[in-house]
Amino acid sequence: EPEVTQTPSHQVTQMGQEVILRCVPISNHLYFYWYRQILGQKVEFLVSFYNNEISEKSEIFDDQFSVERPDGSNFTLKIRSTKLEDSAMYFCASRVFLASGKETQYFGPGTRLLVL
Amino acid sequence: AQTVTQSQPEMSVQEAETVTLSCTYDTSESNYYLFWYKQPPSRQMILVIRQEAYKQQNATENRFSVNFQKAAKSFSLKISDSQLGDTAMYFCAFLKENGNKLVFGAGTILRVKS
């Protein structure tokens, strides 16, 4: 069964450094998302992406964040200058455009980011 | 704005027993979707079950079923014949029709005991 994959599974970085989190959505999916989950807290929406542009973003998704689909398979989240409070699990998700169950978002296994 | 409330931070159940996890939500939307996701210790988010608000029939997936009460804005998850592998955090989530953003509840930790 097709799955969303994410790399790396864990990343440790120093405050102020740039990080890029990578996701490979399910191949016939056209909508892509990033969510984050700070340890012990609820999952929060960051951004949605469709047709090579951001379709919606949350207040969390400020100028330090950016997303890109650099090729036909990858979807990336960049944090330009990491802060301690960016430490969290980051989930990528994707869904189909037109099909039965099109509203269901399928999640990847997450990248655990630790900012020191 | 939509909100999702899970009032049970933790639940325990004996193996093979049945347990029900509660979820309520608040919305002014008439068409929407509701989901239960499971997050085991590995922290991966796994879809358990989904419900379309315009369908009166409650969704079922093997041992998992929901009790969807649209007027009461309630969406509980029933797990029958609980198994040790069901031990996880369970999140209830809301998505408005044609929406992008899943809105999650705070989660309920379920522990299945042998």
Helical element count of chain B? 0
Biggest interface, chains and residues, is: A-B, 26 and 22 residues
Silhouette of chain B: globular
Q: Estimate the mean pLDDT confidence of chain B.
A: 95
Low-confidence stretches of chain A: none
Radius of gyration of chain B: 14 Å
Class of secondary structure makeup of chain B: mainly beta
DSSP summary, beta strand count of chain A? 11
How much of the sequence of chain B is in beta strands?
over 45%
Q: In percent, how helical is the residue content of chain B?
A: under 10%
Radius of gyration of chain A: 14 Å
Instruction: Please trace the helix and strand order of chain A, writing H or E for each element.
Output: EEEEEEEEEEE
* Ends apart, CA distance between termini of chain B: 41 Å
User: What shape does the CA trace of chain A take?
Assistant: globular
How would you describe this protein?
Chain A has 116 residues and is mainly beta. Chain A has strands at residues 5-7, 10-13, 19-24, 31-37, 44-50, 53-57, 65-68, 75-79, 88-95, 106-107, 111-115. In chain A, strands 2, 4, 5, 6, 9, 10 and 11 form a seven-stranded mixed β-sheet that branches. The model of chain A has no long low-confidence stretch (mean pLDDT 92). With 114 residues, chain B is an all-beta fold. Chain B is 0% helix and 53% strand. Chain B has strands at 3-5, 10-14, 19-21, 24-26, 32-39, 46-52, 60-61, 64-69, 74-79, 88-96, 103-104, 108-113. In chain B, strands 2, 5, 6, 10, 11 and 12 form a six-stranded mixed β-sheet that branches. The radius of gyration of chain B is 14 Å and the shape is globular. The A-B interface holds A 31, 33, 35, 37, 41-45, 48, 55-56, 58, 89, 91, 93, 101, 103-110, 112 and B 33, 35, 37, 42-47, 50, 91, 93, 95, 97, 100-107.
